[in-house]
Design brief:
The structure is a single chain. With about 290 residues, the protein is of the alpha+beta class. Among the domains are: about 100-135; about 140-280, Jelly Rolls (Sandwich), CATH 2.60.120. The protein is built from 2 helices and 7 strands, in the order ααβββββββ. Strands 1, 2, 3, 4, 5, 6 and 7 form a 7-stranded antiparallel beta sheet that branches. A hairpin with a 4-residue loop joins β4 (about 215-225) and β5. The longest helix has about 35 residues, at about 100-135. The relative contact order is 0.14.
Length: about 290
């Protein structure tokens, strides 16, 4: 047909879809020589030498087998205590443990507690050792070198308290409880005392208890070698015979017994004590 339109000329460049670049094919390279790791352990997977401090291969990222010469050396206890834990290189993929503030605070608290216990032990262990020795020590009588009293009933002087006889006694010569009256024993040489036995009344016989008032509360004032003073509160029973009380004290030069109250006190009776006996370790002053 002469009037038919002529076909359009083809375009110079045909349209195409967006393309993607083809990646280059990976090239397999032989393990290269690295001067600084020439003597390092080889990777068991690709034989690439690695630095001794690495856990994974620098080339193929596979785990390395630890050699026997990389065993961890345990730090001394003082370095672990004050220097913290050893900082080790974390493995790839592992999150290193964060050292919290409370860890270091706990360490110093432990150090403070240990130091306090050491100081207390240094201060009190000698006393504990001495108390243990006193507890198991064999007792021996210790006689004072002198004795006196605040006042005495005629014929019943304080020397009768240490005569080792049970039918003699001391009394202040006043009725009622005799509160404030005292007897005092002295030692020429500093002496360690462990026990004291006080026999209340005019005798050790039970049928004679009603003849006098009996000391109830007695305060012992103890003078030491260095001049310091200690006190002991003794409570006696309303019974016949000697009554032993612990009296552990060392370097004693003087002991004063002051009557504070009495059993069966009345206007017709005076308080009476038959005997006072001291006991110390068997190595103390020999009894005279």
């Amino acid at each position: 047909d002469p009037e038919a339109p002529a076909p359009a000329a083809p375009p110079a460049v045909a349209p195409v879809l967006p393309g993607r670049p083809d990646a280059d094919r990976p090239q397999v390279r032989a393990p290269g020589h690295q001067p600084d790791v020439a003597n390092g352990p080889p990777c068991p997977w690709c034989s690439t030498p690695n630095r001794p401090d690495r856990h994974y291969c620098a080339r193929c990222a596979m785990p390395l087998v630890a050699s026997s010469d990389q065993a961890t050396v345990r730090a001394p206890w003082w370095r672990r205590l004050f220097g913290g834990r050893r900082q080790e290189t974390p493995w790839a993929g592992d999150r290193p443990r964060l050292r919290r503030v409370f860890d270091r605070i706990g360490t110093w608290i432990t150090v403070a507690v240990v130091a306090t216990l050491a100081v207390l032990g240094f201060m009190y262990i000698p006393d504990g050792v001495q108390n243990t020795r006193d507890h198991f020590a064999k007792r021996a009588p210790v006689s004072p070198d002198g004795i006196k009293a605040s006042r005495s009933f005629p014929g019943h002087n304080p020397e009768l308290l240490i005569d080792k006889l049970s039918n003699t006694w001391w009394g202040p010569g006043i009725s009622e409880s005799g509160q404030g009256q005292w007897v005092e024993a002295t030692f020429n040489e500093p002496t360690r005392l462990l026990d004291v036995i006080i026999t209340p009344g005019v005798s050790t016989r039970a049928d004679k208890l009603r003849e006098s008032a009996l000391p109830h509360r007695v305060k012992a004032t103890i003078t030491m070698k260095d001049g310091s003073v200690k006190t002991r509160d003794l409570t006696l029973d309303q019974g016949a015979g000697g009554q032993r009380r612990p009296f552990r004290v060392g370097e004693v030069t003087k002991v004063r017994f002051t009557i504070e109250s009495a059993h069966a006190a009345s206007a017709k009776k005076q308080v009476a004590i038959s005997e006072i006996e001291f006991f110390g370790p068997s190595s103390a002053n020999p009894s005279s």
